[in-house]
Amino acid sequence: MTKRSCLRHGLSFAVLAALMCMLMIWNLNSGSVSLSVREIGRVLFRRAGEETAQRIVWDIRFPRILAAAILGGGLSVSGFLLQTFFANPIAGPFVLGISSGAKLVVSLVMIAFLSRGLPMGSGGMILAAFAGAMISMGFVLLISGKVKKMSMLVICGVMIGYICSAVTDFVVTFADDANIVNLHNWSMGSFSGMSWENIRVMAAVTFLSLVLVFLLAKPIGAYQMGEVYAQNMGVNILRFRVELILLSSLLSACVTAFAGPISFVGIAVPHLVKSLFGTAKPLLLIPGCFLGGAVFCLFCDLIARTVFAPTELGISSVTAVFGAPIVIYMMVRGRRNMQ
């Protein structure tokens, strides 16, 4: 690695970290009650200030900000793993229908619990979302064995997503209980209503998954060079693929369980991070994708909360506005490069 490359990579990490810190402060400051940076610092570091300010920061805004950063980063890494698995830059949890499958199973399980007056913990939501993600991934893998063109696989994934979303909307629409009807807001994607218990669970699942992804960095690098090259380097291809599927599904399931389906983050952010770093090395892209996903979701959540306040937009709508043009640009540029 040249000195120039090291400098570029260091600056890229510094830019992403600075943007994340800036957006965290901006998110803490923004809302129906405006808080100055000094007030925020007093509440965070001294546990001082007015009781109202402390409750706004510690009970509402700070958990939401941490959730956006953790889940956004996890979703971006999940997209990077899927793009590596399918060797396609537009593969992602939302496009392949994995997020929609997780949403469907979580909705069905939540309705079953709520209709009987039973509580559903964070762990149960993650397990339900993981089961849904694995079911959708199973259909995608089944189709991938029958379809040769990657474009057809993506189209089939989109169709699976539409079917799961349609069934979810049908079930939620005809639910009787008021708490079940409120699932509609979750199904549109939102970081609101996060508790510290949610943060602890999602942080444990996400960071454990990231550690396991880091352990796969060397096999991922070999796999990027081609399946034959990876086999010659001693990579067990079958086991490696299973590990990629499980980790990407677990990360996307964790996001869907807590925030609902979020579109385009898993596609757009890895592409932006690759362009920023100028490399495809997993050891750099894994933390880079996590930071990039955190920045992207913090920014989109800020837009969702403040642009039409007090009305809040679904986070998936905002991520689509900023992520879809990036995906279109990727497809157009890829087509030009093939010509």
Automatic annotation (TrEMBL):
The chain crosses the membrane at residues 7-26, 65-82, 94-114, 126-145, 152-175, 201-223, 244-272, 284-304, 313-332. Pfam families: FecCD. It is a multi-pass membrane protein. It is found in: Cell membrane. Keywords: Cell membrane, Membrane, Transmembrane, Transmembrane helix, Transport. GO terms for biological process: siderophore-iron import into cell. GO terms for molecular function: transmembrane transporter activity. The keyword Disulfide bond does not apply. One of its GO terms (cellular component) is plasma membrane. It comes from the Bacteria. Belongs to the binding-protein-dependent transport system permease family. FecCD subfamily. This is Iron complex transport system permease protein. It comes from Enterocloster lavalensis. The lineage of its organism: Bacteria, Bacillati, Bacillota, Clostridia, Lachnospirales.
